[in-house]
Design a protein that fits this description.
Layout: E1 5-8, E2 17-21, E3 36-40, E4 46-52, E5 58-64, E6 70-72
Antiparallel strand pairs: 1-2, 3-4, 4-5, 5-6
Length: about 70
């Protein structure tokens, strides 16, 4: 699965910045590739995103919008 990126931009098209960059890793919980279905949390402070991981399922990651810190959820 190709590495992809997750970007955020203001409604007026300004302030674009990358939140997440795809990466490979030996630990499948750390793989970030084929990012799909970004969904903001209700308060807008974080984004859930799916990543292609295992052959049978993807992985869910949470990215803090303010800091860009990412963590594996499940």
């Amino acid at each position: 699965v190709p590495a992809t990126e997750l970007w955020i931009v203001g409604a007026d098209g300004t302030g674009a910045r990358r939140l997440l960059r795809g990466r490979g890793h030996d630990d499948m919980t750390r793989v970030l590739a084929g990012l799909t279905n970004p969904t903001f949390t209700p308060d807008g402070r974080a984004v859930y995103v799916e990543s292609g991981a295992w052959a049978t399922s993807g992985a869910l990651h949470l990215v803090d919008v303010a800091t860009g810190v990412e963590r594996f959820v499940c």
